[in-house]
Design goal:
single chain, about 55% helix
């Protein structure tokens, strides 16, 4: 990662990816465009490294989705720790993704978005009725690959993109198994992939299913 000592967003992403913890270096929600470009390049490297262990044909990296997810996690953490904004202003600070959700965008966003459930849980612990809770929960319902093991509701989840790509479908099934997420594993849209991934080893890996 390259940047300067005041690239707080980049420093947070580096700690997030390499230390698997959210560490904020300053109360700064405004991110310079140059830093966003550096973040896109950093996240692409992280994506390429993870893809080395992915099965089959890996979807292409989506920089826009990766940066959106990184900003979402970063700003949500800022709001959790340094809340100075009015409640009415928060939705605009954590907007929904404006691009088309593809196989590549799901996996690219997950580079950082997989850490959002922890932020959501902390927000719930502080105030379950906070608007931040509502916004983050909505994001995770849409990007549910990053919320496996943490979803409260499975009704209405969209698997249309996930089930059109063998690589992503396999990764989704593997994560469901890792988290022993029975609600997801028994959905009609995911059960065949989960059962195929378990194969003859179900009684060893997930006998309760």
């Amino acid at each position: 990662m390259t940047g300067t000592a005041t690239d707080y967003f980049l420093q947070t992403l580096d700690t997030l990816r390499n230390g698997e913890e959210i560490l904020l270096y300053a109360n700064a929600v405004q991110i310079p465009s140059q830093e966003l470009e550096l973040a896109a390049a950093f996240l692409e490297t992280e994506y390429d490294n993870e893809c080395l262990g992915y099965p089959g044909q890996v979807p292409a990296y989506d920089g826009a989705a990766a940066v959106w997810a990184a900003k979402t996690v970063y700003i949500a953490a800022q709001l959790l720790l340094y809340r100075k904004d009015k409640e009415a202003d928060i939705p605009a600070m954590l907007p929904a993704y404006e691009g088309t959700i593809t196989q590549g965008s799901i996996l690219s966003a997950d580079i950082c978005l997989r850490f959002l459930p922890d932020v959501l849980q902390m927000a719930k612990n502080i105030d379950a009725d906070d608007v931040l809770v509502t916004i983050l929960a909505a994001h995770l319902q849409q990007w549910h690959y990053s919320a496996i093991g943490h979803l409260m509701e499975t009704e209405g989840l969209d698997f249309s993109v996930i089930n059109t790509n063998p690589c992503l479908q396999q990764l989704y099934a593997d994560r469901v198994i890792d988290h022993k997420d029975k609600k997801l594993a028994t959905l009609a849209e995911m059960a065949p992939a989960v059962n195929a991934a378990l194969g003859n080893h179900q009684k060893y890996f997930w006998n309760e299913l």
